[in-house]
TrEMBL record:
It holds the Pfam family FMN_red. GO terms for cellular component: cytosol. One of its GO terms (molecular function) is FMN binding. The lineage of its organism: Bacteria, Pseudomonadati, Bacteroidota, Flavobacteriia, Flavobacteriales. It comes from the Bacteria. This is NAD(P)H-dependent oxidoreductase. SUPFAM superfamilies: Flavoproteins. Residues 4-140 form the NADPH-dependent FMN reductase-like domain.
Length: 178
């Protein structure tokens, strides 16, 4: 059975992106799914000097190994001030040093949501431009606008937005099966 990992680019205990990634991973059929929490991969603030002095943090190496062992990735990025969250950016800096081909050409469903009408589109566009430099295979993207208006009781409540997500999940699933 294929195994995917899913995580939100956030360390918030009430992360709306973690809620979205959890719901999305439940829609993927016949796969073993592990939902990660970035709080379990705490690393010091990246610095070239620190890397030279101490090497790579164990949690960065562990996350990179988890990515290597997975067959696919579902990532939902939180947006802070129009960019990645500090926790995601810092961890991404470390794991991309451990392995420059960070995403290992694994099929990826890349998502974002926010309370606002743009649904994290700025960070989503940033990642779509950046991740291919790290060997991503983004097979589908999805943005959920106005999270609190469109998500309730663990699922998307707006039928058109849910249909868009189901199309993205289908593309992701097809890429995993090839």
């Amino acid at each position: 059975m294929k195994h995917i990992i899913a995580f939100a680019g956030s360390n918030s205990k009430q992360s709306i992106n973690k809620q979205l990634v959890t719901y999305t991973s439940s829609l993927v059929e016949n796969l073993d799914t592990t939902i990660l929490d970035l709080n379990d991969f705490e690393v010091p603030i990246f610095s070239v000097d620190l890397e030279q002095e101490t090497g790579f943090p164990e949690h960065a190496k562990r996350l990179m190994n988890i990515i290597k062992e997975a067959d696919g990735l579902i990532i939902s990025l939180a947006e802070h001030n129009g960019a990645y969250t500090a926790v995601f950016k810092n961890l991404f800096d470390w794991i991309s040093r451990v392995e420059p081909k960070t995403f290992q050409n694994k099929p990826m469903l890349l998502m974002a949501t926010s309370p606002g009408a743009r649904g994290g589109l700025t960070v989503l566009e940033m990642a779509k431009a950046r991740f291919p430099r790290h060997d991503s295979n983004i097979v589908a993207t999805y943005s959920l606008p106005s999270f609190f208006d469109n998500f309730s009781e663990g699922k998307i409540t707006h039928s058109d937005l849910n249909a868009q997500l189901l199309k993205a999940v289908k593309l992701f699933q097809e890429a995993l099966n090839h």
